[in-house]
Amino acid sequence: MIEPRAPAPPRSAPPPVAASAASGAAKLPVRPATGRFLVLAGVFVCAACGLVYELELVALASYLIGDSVTQASVVLSVMVFAMGIGSLAAKRLRRHAATGFAAIEATLALVGGCSAMALYAAFAWTAGWGGVWSNGPRGLLVAFSLTIGLLIGAEVPLLMELIQRIRRQDAGGAVADLFAADYVGALVGGLAFPFLLLPLLGQLTGALLTGAVNVVAGGSLVLGLFRWDLTRRARWTLTVANLTVLGLLATGAVLVGDFEHAARHAVYGADVRVALQSDVQEIVVSGGTHGRPFHLFLDGRLRVDGRDERRYHEALVHPAMAGPHARVLILGGGDGLAAREVLRHPGVRRVDVVDLDPAVVRLARTDPALTRLNGHSYDDPRVHTVCTDAFAWLRTAPQAAYDVVIEDLPDPGITDSTKLYAQEFYGLARRALTPEGRLVVHAGPVATRRRTYWTVETTVRAAGLHTRPYRVDGRNSPYAAGPDRTRGTDRAARDWGFVLAARTPPRLALDPAAPRPRTLTAASLAEDARAAQRTRITGLPASTLVHPRYAG
Prior knowledge:
Shape: elongated
CATH architecture of the largest domain: Up-down Bundle
Oligomer: single chain
Radius of gyration: 30 Å
CATH class of the largest domain: Mainly Alpha
Number of strands: 11
Strand content: 5-15%
Helix content: 40-55%
Number of domains: 2
């Protein structure tokens, strides 16, 4: 028996690789399996770009504003909230999923790619205007986080619609495929930012390149795979829009060098001599030649002002050296200035400097202005350097090895430094001290940050040490006095606070055998201690690693 043959399909039927328009499926130039793979590849790339934008905002905000935990919390919380709103809003675009997705990717590429330049420009040229900006570029940061979050959130329902148009499947399977590609892309973007984009290209160029990748991926996916879902006018419009975005990003990349140069001068002044990005931080040196004052900035914060650094370093070092001081440990102080003051004391046999950034130490050895300022302290054979994290180094330091421990570290209110002002850290420093040893801590300004200062003092006492707090007045400068101050003197600190500590109650004095400091006397130190005591805040809890108490 011969079975009847199936009737041939009519000549008007679509080719096998294109699904029926009547069923709502897309007409594809490739097989459905290939189309599905290309959509998931697009999800992967767009997710990687989205996370790079997110990390870029966090990094730049931490650099410009400070307090990385707060800035990361602001960016992440606003962005996640906006993603939810964007996902809801995109439901209205599902009927035009291809066009909507292409438009969103072009907008996201432009906004995300230019976000770093916009934030840096606003910081450089409006930081002195006061008002809202006096607290940092938080408003602009929130605006970019909100916009980028809205656009990233809008991608998800549109991509889901595009996947389902290729081949219908159960919702659970489609969601699993989509989010698998999304999360793997986020992993790649998260690793590429710190290990590839930031060290090789920097923040600005890295963001611009990410935007270019984003617009190419989104545009190619829609104009290549879903072009038959678009009208002729929509194809031309999207093509022009994508090329325009690419052109703007390329223009930004070409001009980024001149932009950075102009912005850096706007922030640091016209005397910038050195500007480099180490593995740890941005290092900028200005002045120091032709009678101009020397300034050293680390990640935008003034660490050394040549006009008043001596007062700071003499107040930090000399009271701690009024006792046994054959072996001295300096934590931080890679600029060599604290070592300069230590070496003025007779009887010093060894000075160990532990600083995180070898680039700072290298600069202190080679920059003519800085070596002149630090008295070529690194040329002294008694000075030894270790470039590593101070906390990690103290954990393996020999017990009772040092007569003096000097903590010349960034302010405790900077989140990255909080662990260096924790009770556990002071416990490790106490273990490294000899029974008669003395510890001195730079604890930030007293007048403008009393609570932070007295939290440091409380935390040192909680580590089992007796304390003697004191402060010294600073001197005004275009960037305000002292380490870790940003530009603008309206709210700048005018003093430095210190805490001298030992196993027995320490005496605030000067070493009579050492050359007399230029800016300190025994009488002024006593008055400085009384001035600090008048600001005391009692009842404060100690700061620990798991419960930091310092405000940014």
